[in-house]
Amino acid sequence: MTNQWHSRLLPSAVEAIGQTPLVELSRYMASAGLQGRLLAKLEYLNPGFSKKDRVARQMIEDAEAAGLLRPGQTVVELTSGNTGTGLAIVCAVKGYRFVAVMSRGNSVERARMMAALGAEVVLVDQGPESKPGEVSGGDLARVEQEAQRLVRERSAFRADQFRLEGNFRAHYLHTGPEILAQAGCAIDGFCDFAGTGGSYVGCAAALKERNPATRCYLVEPAGAAALAGEAVTSPNHPIQGGGYAMAELCHLDRGQINGYLQVSGQEATATTRQLARTEGIFAGFSSGANVAAATQLLTGELRGKTVVVLLNDSGLKYLSTDLWQG
């Protein structure tokens, strides 16, 4: 049994990013009484326990190649915790100081992990209508304001995951092609929870390049489906890392979207727990949201077909939340 880590010596943890396994969720499918195949890319097995390690590496290496990031310069970015963790790893290896700016509404595990990796973590208070564990678009706006201030104050490089092309390039160049190489079969559908939109755009582009008939769906929290054009009635939800009720995302290519799916916080929680029990997969809220959305497809228009999802981050990042309580 071999994989990239067993087969060769790596110079650093940065080179361990990517080439995550693709597994078939046959036990989950059986427990849910579904027909077809559900394939899951285990992105939580990256060094920082999320798909955002790929984005962090791509953004920093793109900036280095373009001469936009100077040796020893400080890097700043807002984060729900995952991109920040990836940047903390990449910056530690490459010798950059990293400042992570995060809402206090995100889980405390994320802040502690970034700090342990050498990052300076700046926590921003939530708005008066928000509560811990549920980060709204208004909370994100507060974090953005603080990130901009720090960039100016420290003459820092902004590793802006909402705007830099490295975000979707990481998935177009690597994640999508990895899925195609690993699957060994035609992929009928792909669905992905919208955070910055980078993994959706990159993977959808790669999958549709191989097979234009592959149907790709954007996933949002129920009640905060602004990208689908719906009224936002519940901006606060437990699915951290996305659903910020933003009307548009820079990376999003509407031509790559075949449909929109909504998943409630309760559905995401229940499905995440079911993955742990049936498949031994210990993932986070948005991973459960992706599988719940895929379940909608496999009981509907893609019944009996093959659907692929990303399992975005580790359940270890949510031990302080109610995801695993009870």
Q: What would you say this structure looks like, in words?
A:
The structure is a single chain. The chain has 2 domains: 4-46 and 168-318, Rossmann fold, CATH 3.40.50.1100; 52-158, Rossmann fold (3-Layer(aba) Sandwich). 39% of the residues lie in helices and 16% in strands. The protein has helices spanning 4-7, 26-32, 52-66, 82-94, 108-116, 137-154, 166-183, 198-210, 265-279, 285-298; strands at residues 22-24, 37-42, 74-78, 97-103, 120-124, 157-158, 189-193, 215-221, 259-263, 306-311. It has a 6-stranded mixed sheet, sandwiched between helices. It has a 4-stranded parallel sheet with strand order 5-4-3-6, with helices on both faces. Strand 7, helix 8 and strand 8 (215-221) form a beta-alpha-beta unit. Helix 2 (26-32) crosses helix 9 (265-279), helix 3 (52-66) crosses helix 7 and helix 4 packs parallel to helix 5 (108-116). The radius of gyration is 19 Å and the shape is globular.
List keywords for this structure.
alpha/beta, single chain, 6-stranded mixed beta sheet, Rossmann fold, 2 domains, 4-stranded parallel beta sheet, 326 residues
Lay out the secondary structure.
Elements (H helix, E strand, L loop, with lengths): L3 H4 L14 E3 L1 H7 L4 E6 L9 H15 L7 E5 L3 H13 L2 E7 L4 H9 L3 E5 L12 H18 L2 E2 L7 H18 L5 E5 L4 H13 L4 E7 L37 E5 L1 H15 L5 H14 L7 E6 L15
Parallel strand pairs: 2-10, 3-4, 3-6, 4-5, 7-8, 7-10, 8-9
Antiparallel strand pairs: 1-2
Helix pairs in contact: 2-9, 3-4, 3-7, 4-5, 7-8, 9-10
Task: State the helical fraction.
Answer: 25-40%
Name of the CATH class of the largest domain: Alpha Beta
- Average pLDDT, to the nearest integer? 93
Calculate Rg over CA atoms: 19 Å
**How large is the count of helical segments?**
10
What does the main sheet amount to? 6 strands, mixed
